[in-house]
């Protein structure tokens, strides 16, 4: 009888050990699988980031340019505007020397200084940028964006060498003004790159960027665009506006400090600097470089009278 009980106890003990060993083995395998899967996900995120950073083609856009600023007198004479205005204002388009814009620099500096002081109250500018960055459509692989550093600089833009030149439009003129801005305007942000496969927010890669504008210079053009003259009255009134554009030979120097990753960090990637600088240059080209321009509408003083006559 005792032998039978001992045998039963031994069998139960063996089964218990086997079950514990099986559970322990299963737990170990689950841990190993989870660990390997987690590491693979991080590696996939890093590979995708590196692939984008090091294989993205940085394309420099072709920009059509206006005629040379140093136009020969014989060529410029053929494109001179109506002599009536230049004669009455004593301005020789060909030989008049460039003018100083010191008065404009002082007035703009006062306006910019006031904006800087207003922006520093209760971190208004940082809060506004946070709201702008996180509103609208944000890619699903980019996490919330937080502004960590903001410095609007201490210097002011300097405009110089204002001159009047013949316009591309027949019988019209444009003003050309050089500008130079050398400072250290800095914006720092933190965000995350999110891997949403095989499930939502499967892996996260922290990203930190500090962008500084060091130098920005070029030539602005200001021109009054009049609606074309027609014999018949148009159904929709044609608008008159001031067009502000830039020449394509502008200079934009940036400094980019980058930090990608949490433990194994990639710091100051040159390719990332090239990408950001190219994207910003293309944005400026798309918005302001000739033939693109910023339009400022000139109000029609006789609009109400015209409506009454109709």
TrEMBL record:
Cytoplasmic side: 56-310
Coiled coil: none
Broad class of where this protein is predominantly found: endoplasmic reticulum
Top-level taxonomic group: Eukaryota
Subunit annotation: Homodimer. Component of the ER-mitochondria encounter structure (ERMES) or MDM complex, composed of MMM1, MDM10, MDM12 and MDM34. A MMM1 homodimer associates with one molecule of MDM12 on each side in a pairwise head-to-tail manner, and the SMP-LTD domains of MMM1 and MDM12 generate a continuous hydrophobic tunnel for phospholipid trafficking.
Family affiliation: Belongs to the MMM1 family.
PANTHER family linked: SMP-LTD DOMAIN-CONTAINING PROTEIN, TEX2 PROTEIN-RELATED
Name of the protein described by the UniProt record: Maintenance of mitochondrial morphology protein 1
């Amino acid at each position: 009888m005792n032998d039978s009980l001992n045998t039963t106890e031994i069998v139960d003990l063996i089964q218990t050990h086997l079950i514990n060993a099986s559970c322990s083995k299963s737990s170990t395998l689950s841990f190993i699988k989870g660990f390997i899967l987690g590491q693979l996900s991080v590696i996939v995120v890093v590979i995708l980031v590196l692939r984008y950073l090091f294989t993205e083609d940085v394309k420099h856009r072709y920009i059509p340019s206006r005629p040379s600023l140093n136009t020969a007198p014989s060529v410029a004479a053929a494109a001179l505007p109506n002599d009536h205005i230049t004669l009455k204002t004593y301005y020789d388009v060909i030989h008049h020397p460039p003018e100083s814009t010191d008065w404009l620099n002082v007035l703009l500096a006062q306006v910019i200084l006031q904006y800087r002081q207003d922006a520093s109250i209760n971190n208004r500018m940082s809060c506004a940028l946070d709201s702008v960055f996180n509103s609208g459509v944000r890619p699903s692989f980019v996490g919330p964006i937080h502004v960590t550093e903001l410095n609007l600089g201490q210097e002011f833009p300097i405009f110089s060498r204002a001159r009047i030149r013949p316009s591309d439009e027949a019988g019209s003129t444009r003003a050309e003004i050089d500008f130079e801005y050398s400072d250290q305007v800095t914006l720092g942000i933190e965000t995350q790159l999110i891997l949403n496969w095989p499930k939502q927010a499967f892996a996260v890669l922290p990203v930190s960027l500090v962008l500084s504008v060091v130098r920005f210079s070029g030539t602005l053009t200001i021109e009054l665009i009049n609606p074309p003259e027609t014999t018949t009255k148009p159904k929709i009134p044609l608008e008159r506006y001031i067009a502000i554009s830039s020449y394509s030979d502008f200079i934009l120097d940036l400094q980019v400090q980058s930090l990608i990753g949490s433990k194994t960090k990639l710091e100051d990637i040159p390719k990332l600097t090239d990408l950001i600088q190219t994207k910003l240059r293309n944005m400026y080209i798309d918005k302001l470089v000739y033939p693109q321009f910023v339009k400022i509408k000139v109000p029609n003083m006789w609009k109400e009278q015209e409506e009454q006559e109709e």
